[in-house]
């Protein structure tokens, strides 16, 4: 079997696993199926990544017809590396979910939960690999419904409200995306990104306004889905109220797939040579900068741990849009690298936070004082991920922020440099107090309860995530160079 068919196999793998999961009788078997499918996904994505690293990009036609009539998957080094990273993170999140999902989701809904997770991951992989904006729209829609499902599956009032808000705003984003696709189709007659780019190189001078409108619609549509400030309003409620593993999935994987799709449309479809794209870059810079600052300020104001981490996601997504908005190959490479950096760190933060909240039976930060002495190893993992988010060398969060700062100096845009520095300081102002309180502050009442510590089998996926995050930081030069080479 050829490696070029593996991307399609990955999509089919998760869809088929989902339907098998919902048909079986026992929850334990559903969990094993989820673990097996994610493990196979890691293996397939590894071969895809190695193929792209060694031999460059490849195209796979799904069916007998070639593009523009048939369905085409495009897999470059960026898609290969990102898909492998996301699949590894999904495997580890699934592993962690085995020990916490029964406490958060009713027994009768556990099978449904894993059904939705597999549907979601299959859609995410489809969005990462597709080279067609209509198929991307289909994957977005299916993924959005599954995302709503893994929030509302918890079956509490706050989950229903959060899901309703997410569904309404996400539907608006889908509609805008479809309108953008319609505008592009009206002037190019194509939905395949490669063909769109070729046609626009011929007609862009005739339709500058249409291109600008379409780009704006894609920006707002996918901006809603990837929590770009100020379109992020659904995220804090959705991510903080969802089951722990859902929060990790949504923050670490789903947002990243949507922003990667946006990058593909911008660079591979519309093309950055268009004069109109400069305005879009400036808007992305402003919104990215605002997200970095306001997201952090909102995180500082939170009293609930998961809600603080959710607002931190808004700030971190700001870095990604900031990097895109710089409009340079290096800035884009650093933004894509930050996708990996944030995915590892945020999955660790949500999983550890969920376990601490579960053991302490409180979601409030002040009730978690002293939790570091009760759960030292879990808190240690949380601390390492926090340090990455703040930007401490050699961790990946530092690498992306440091390089983004250097890029602003290279461009002579010192106001943007100040934004990066202030944002990093604000990150410290909400992560450090929690870590310090966890280790050194006394509990409001009661003795320390050392029985809250996680078992070794619960901690192993967290250790592997942390090792993966540290490796991503140590190998940052090689990864970023691969991204730069892929961008041409």
From TrEMBL:
The chain crosses the membrane at residues 6-25, 32-50, 81-100, 112-130, 136-154, 166-187, 207-227, 248-267, 279-301, 308-328, 334-357, 377-395, 415-440, 460-480. Keywords: Cell membrane, Membrane, Transmembrane, Transmembrane helix. This is Na(+)/H(+) antiporter subunit D. Belongs to the CPA3 antiporters (TC 2.A.63) subunit D family. It is a multi-pass membrane protein. GO terms for biological process: ATP synthesis coupled electron transport. Coiled coil: none annotated. InterPro entries: CPA3_Na-H_Antiporter_D (IPR050586), NADH_UbQ_OxRdtase (IPR003918), ND/Mrp_TM (IPR001750). It holds the Pfam family Proton_antipo_M. It comes from Andreesenia angusta. GO terms for cellular component: plasma membrane. It is found in: Cell membrane; Membrane. Residues 131-425 form the NADH:quinone oxidoreductase/Mrp antiporter transmembrane domain.
